[in-house]
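Exercise 4. Each item below gives a protein and its sequence. For each, produce the structure-token representation.

Item: Methyltransferase MtfB (Streptomyces virginiae).
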Amino acid sequence: MENTAELYLDLLEKVVTNLVYEDAPIPNEWFPEREFRPENRETGTDWPSVAHTMVGLRRIRNIRTLLDRVVADGVPGDFIETGVWRGGVCIFARGYLKAHGITDRNVWLADSFEGIPDTGEDGHPMDREMALHRCNGVLGVTADTVRENFGRYGLLDDQVRFLPGWFKDTLPTAPVERLAVLRLDGDLYESTLDALDNLYPKLSAGGFVVIDDYFIPACRKAVDEFREKHGITDEIEAIDEYSVFWRRSA
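Answer:
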């Protein structure tokens, strides 16, 4: 008989991506599709109108695989996502911990809960070019809404920790002691560097870094510069066409 925990996680994958009810996407300049297509929800190439995550099924399954590996290998530390939108990835991570009876790891949510910052004239040129703040009507989700989403799954408890505010303000003093999985979804050059500079030193050897937006030139530049500066040569592995991860060797 299949393990009950695994059956729960199979279902949770489908619920946070809403492959169950197949909500229509919100058309935008990057993903203009107006009709639900399962292949887009698989690859995270639409902005769902209802689903609690836009990362798609493959990237949710990547998180499940990485959590399996750090738990099996005894890699110490928590899970954090920087840039959480409606909270679906973190909801899944908390569900994973609960399904496996893990009580000594937390799930951290770092987000402005206002959307993407307007970098203005002082921001990195690549961030100004993207101007993602124009989409904050969709991308800005309040902390209260994310808490409500956790509550709908019965997963809002003291193992869920919120870090509200801009990364440059919150991450340098965040009370995170040790991380096993660090997932970056901040889109921008500056947001990506803020997360790496402040959180990578807390990542355990054997832990994983996930870069959701590696296909965005600004994000990729920040990651590549950080790796070069710190002499990181751990192999970058693709999740799909848009996202990558690597395992910290030391």
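Check: The first helix runs from residue 4 to 16.
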